[in-house]
Design goal:
Layout (H helix, E strand, L loop, with lengths): L2 E6 L22 H12 L3 E5 L4 H10 L3 E3 L7 H8 L8 E6 L7 H11 L4 E6 L2 E2 L4 H5 L3 H14 L4 H5 L1 E5 L22 H14 L17 H7 L4 H18 L6 E6 L6 H17 L4 E6 L26 H17 L4 E4 L6 H4 L5 E4 L7 H9 L4 E4 L7 H10 L4 E5 L5 E5 L6 E5 L9 H13 L6 E4 L9 H16 L5 E7 L28 H19 L2
Parallel strand pairs: 1-2, 1-4, 2-3, 8-9, 8-17, 9-10, 10-11, 11-12, 12-15, 15-16, 16-17
Antiparallel strand pairs: 5-6, 5-7, 13-14
Organism: Kineobactrum salinum
Pathway: Metabolic intermediate biosynthesis; chorismate biosynthesis; chorismate from D-erythrose 4-phosphate and phosphoenolpyruvate: step 1/7
Catalytic activity: D-erythrose 4-phosphate + phosphoenolpyruvate + H2O = 7-phospho-2-dehydro-3-deoxy-D-arabino-heptonate + phosphate
């Protein structure tokens, strides 16, 4: 059992005339330094809670070799500091909370408490034979010590002599705590503090009554908070410029201010980040050669929607062995995007849920909503708030009206539920996304031909939308046969060369090697070959991009 320590050092007390954390002891060390040193000598893993902008404390921690977690609501009290810090901690199974102004606690004490934690009982407050639920709603909304005192005061007014007097000890075996972990409380006093009190009430109440929730959930594992991953893999100035310039470039092409063709090119899915980097280096070289005619975006898909079941992508199962190391997958995904942006190559991806964008959307230049989710209200709401242009695919049966409806919806403001960079649930209000467009991906029949493009153009105009169309050369347009992708791309090049202004972009599924392969346990994979849909190979890709560039040049001469 891994037990860690959270050292609370986010306060701003001036008890000694200045920041008390830096008050000096007889040996010359500060309170913070001495308290932290005792924990470090215990050998327990440690994180220190700080408030944002606390540069002096952050500098001292760096010298002392300690890691910090930033708590934006620290000024609201200790309970809020703890609530901010919890989602940012590693996946410890037990937690000790220590204070930065208590340097006299010995390392052996920390170690002894941590060792005893595995055998500890969960202690709950009890009143007249049951849980103290009268004040649960107040506890849920509490914010730190002052709110807790107010709850106690209201309890006293109701003749309960305060919660401290009303609470007696009752113990529940630690095993009933389920996935919430073990927590030691001496009584019903201030140790509960705000959000911790609310969580305790909720978990204990559910364990002592008939359970109707999470009956099919076998296990929950904490995700790294988005802001922690963003901090771990920061965006450099040059990478940020790549993303910003690409978004603006695609915006200009969509608006008809730039006559280049957008080409979203890359593997069906990413399963090997190193092969993806090699592909990116090759693509960047070709992109530079045709930059005057074709705006190249690398297709970087980490999540795969499945018709039934199957491998769901690098984020969901990065090790390809059904171990579902999602925290690892998120790290690999963000690192790859950062590397591509650093080399000057914009990236495009498909958005499948409302949570993962918080981990890497700042590195995405163009996004797609797939055929299975274009009709989804939540994906339309998400798209209305994304910072990049977004393409909506027609439905799997070929219906393009759902994509047109999605474009209109995403252009409007919305309110929807998701999680913040801190990992907290929140209501997001959006302004609407004007840079949305349709993607023709085929259905019961292909829809990349001139007549299908004309029909889509007419429908867009009738709907009052810009007649701007991207064609997906794969999926139902090629029946997932790589050789047919080549035919589709050349057909699009012909339409562009003949003067088509509706077609502004094309999607191509391409990899280092053509075709696809199966994942077989114990068998090495072929480097650079898809494990999902079959792709065209690199040589064909480079040749076809040159042909698309030539088509754009021909269109300019008309």
């Amino acid at each position: 059992m891994t037990v860690g320590v959270l050292l609370l050092a986010a306060g701003s007390s001036r008890r000694f005339g200045s920041d008390k954390r830096f008050a000096r002891l007889a040996d010359g060390s500060s309170l913070l330094q001495a308290s932290l040193g005792a924990i470090q000598r215990s050998g327990l893993p440690l994180r220190v809670a700080l408030r944002p902008g606390d540069e002096i404390a952050a500098a001292e921690l760096k010298v002392l070799g300690a890691s910090a977690v930033l708590c934006p609501n620290a000024e609201r009290g200790m309970g809020c500091t703890i609530a901010d810090a919890l989602p940012l901690l590693p996946a410890w199974e037990g937690l000790l909370i220590a204070l930065a102004d208590m340097p006299a606690i010995r390392p052996a004490t920390y170690a002894a408490v941590a060792a005893a934690l595995a055998e500890a009982e969960l202690v709950s407050p009890e009143y007249r034979g049951g849980l103290v639920t009268r004040w649960a709603s107040d506890a849920v909304c509490s914010r730190g010590w002052h709110s807790w005192r107010a709850i106690r005061a209201r309890a006293s007014c109701c003749g309960r002599r305060g919660l401290r007097a009303a609470c007696s000890r009752s113990t529940i075996p630690a095993s009933t705590a389920m996935s919430t972990g073990r927590l030691i409380l001496r009584d019903g006093r201030s140790e509960l503090l705000g959000a911790i009190l609310a969580r305790l009430f909720a978990s204990l109440w559910s364990s002592m009554t008939t359970n109707t929730d999470d009956l099919r959930i076998q296990r929950t594992i904490e995700l790294i908070a988005p802001r922690q991953l963003v901090a771990d893999i920061a965006v450099s100035d040059s990478a940020a410029e790549t993303v910003s310039a690409a978004r603006q470039g695609i915006h200009r092409i969509l608006a008809g201010e730039d006559d280049r063709l957008v080409a979203v090119v890359g593997p069906c899915s990413i399963h090997d980040p190193e092969a993806a980097r090699e592909y990116g280096r090759r693509l960047r070289a070709v992109a530079a050669e045709i930059a005057d005619d074709v705006f190249v975006v690398m297709r970087v898909y980490f999540e795969k929607p499945r018709t039934t079941v199957g491998w769901k992508g690098l984020i969901n199962d990065p090790d390809l062995n059904n171990t579902f190391q999602i925290n690892k997958g998120l790290h690999l995904a963000r690192q790859l995007l950062a590397d591509l942006a650093e080399m000057g190559l914009p990236a495009g991806t498909e958005y499948l849920d409302l949570i993962s964008p918080q981990y890497y959307a700042d590195l995405i230049s163009w996004g797609a909503i797939g055929a299975r989710t274009t009709e989804s209200q939540t994906h339309r709401e998400l798209s209305s708030g994304l910072s990049c242009p977004v393409g909506f695919k027609n439905a799997t049966d070929g219906d393009i009206q759902v994509a047109i409806d999605a474009i209109k919806s995403a252009s409007q403001p919305h309110h929807f539920l998701s999680v913040t960079k801190q990992g907290h649930s929140a209501i997001f209000q959006t302004s609407g996304n004007e840079d949305c467009h349709i993607i023709l991906r085929g259905g019961k029949h292909p829809n990349y031909d001139m007549f299908s493009v004309d029909d889509a153009t007419e429908m867009l105009v009738r709907a009052g939308l810009p007649a701007r169309i991207m064609v997906d050369a794969s999926h139902a347009n090629s029946r997932k046969i790589p050789a047919r992708q080549v035919d589709v791309i050349r057909d699009i090049a012909t339409q562009v060369a003949r003067g088509s202004r509706s077609i502004f972009g094309i999607m191509v599924e391409s990899n280092l090697l053509a075709g696809r392969q199966d994942v077989v346990a114990g068998q090495a994979l072929t480097y650079g070959q898809s494990i999902t849909d079959p792709c065209i190979g690199w040589d064909d890709t480079a040749q076809l991009l040159e042909e698309l560039a030539a088509a754009v040049r021909t269109r300019r001469q008309r």
